[in-house]
Every structure is written in structure tokens, then in C-alpha cells.
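C-alpha cells as discussed.
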């Protein structure tokens, strides 16, 4: 009964999930969505007494959930982009280190370590999925500025996000 229920839900919702998705990404997203349904609902007890009601309720939940998402959030949810995840993580680390230097006025990372992280940021940008490219470029730019600031190699130029903190502090 589980397979029948999942397939019925999938059939009722897949058009919404794939709406706006590039033809090249559709098969991967569709397969990921089916796996997602199994992971989310495989513990449900679909039996003859509750089958129709459960399928209807879950279908409504899924339709509501996916109709409110844009293409980018659907792709981010279903397509793994390891390079983007690394860039995002390093950029957050860079910001944290830059913020620490700004607040405590202490060098928070060695120049060698900062350069190693910057090299990783630059190398990973080429393998980021197209739908994440714009955001990845912004994160790399901010990350480079933050790593340079955090290690003290360039304290005159700061990232936009750090300047935002600085401007907020100067207003008070």
C-alpha cells in the first residue's frame, strides 16, 4: 500500500515541483522528489480504512508546500551542490573571523591559513551549479575581503557585510 500511496501523491504533485525547473534538471529533481516522499512518509500506516484520506491530506500538504517555492529554492532543496556548500561554509567562517578581529582588534587567523582558504574559495567557484553561481560569486568576494581583513593583510578594505556592522555601530 505504501508504494501505491507514494506514487499517487507523486503523480498529483510532481507537476508543481517541476514547474519552472530547467529541462536538464527535471529528471534529477523528479527522482529526488520521489526519494524525499519515501523518506518523509514511509513510516505512515496506509491501510484500506485511511488510505484515501491520508493520500488526499498529504497531497494537499505537498501541493501547498511546493507551489509556494520558487525555482531556486526547489533546486537548492533537491540538487546537491557541494562546491556551493563549501563556499558558503568558508564565507561564514571568514565573516566570523573578520567580525572577531573587528570587535577585539586582534588578528584572528594566520596569513597562510587565510591564503589557503582564499585559494579554496577561488577554485570552488568554477564547479558551482549555474543556479547558485551569482550567490557563490558574492560569497567568494565577501569571503576574500573578510579573510584578508581577519589576517591583517588589508585592514583598509572590508566586506559589505562587515561594513554594515561598522556603520550600525557608528550610528549609535
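Sequence:
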Amino acid at each position: 500500500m505504501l508504494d501505491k500511496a507514494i506514487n499517487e501523491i507523486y503523480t498529483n504533485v510532481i507537476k508543481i515541483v517541476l514547474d519552472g525547473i530547467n529541462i536538464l534538471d527535471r529528471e534529477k529533481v523528479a527522482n529526488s522528489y520521489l526519494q524525499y516522499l519515501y523518506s518523509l512518509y514511509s513510516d505512515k500506516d496506509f491501510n484500506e480504512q485511511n488510505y484515501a484520506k491520508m493520500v488526499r491530506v498529504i497531497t494537499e500538504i505537498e501541493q501547498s508546500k511546493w507551489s509556494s517555492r520558487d525555482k531556486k529554492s526547489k533546486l537548492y532543496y533537491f540538487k546537491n551542490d557541494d562546491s556551493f556548500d563549501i563556499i558558503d561554509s568558508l564565507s561564514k567562517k571568514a565573516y566570523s573571523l573578520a567580525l572577531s578581529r573587528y570587535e577585539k582588534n586582534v588578528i584572528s587567523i594566520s596569513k597562510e591559513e587565510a591564503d589557503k582558504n582564499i585559494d579554496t574559495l577561488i577554485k570552488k567557484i568554477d564547479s558551482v551549479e549555474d543556479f547558485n553561481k551569482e550567490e557563490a560569486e558574492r560569497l567568494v568576494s565577501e569571503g576574500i575581503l573578510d579573510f584578508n581583513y581577519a589576517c591583517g593583510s588589508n585592514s583598509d578594505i572590508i566586506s559589505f557585510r562587515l561594513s554594515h556592522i561598522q556603520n550600525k555601530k557608528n550610528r549609535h
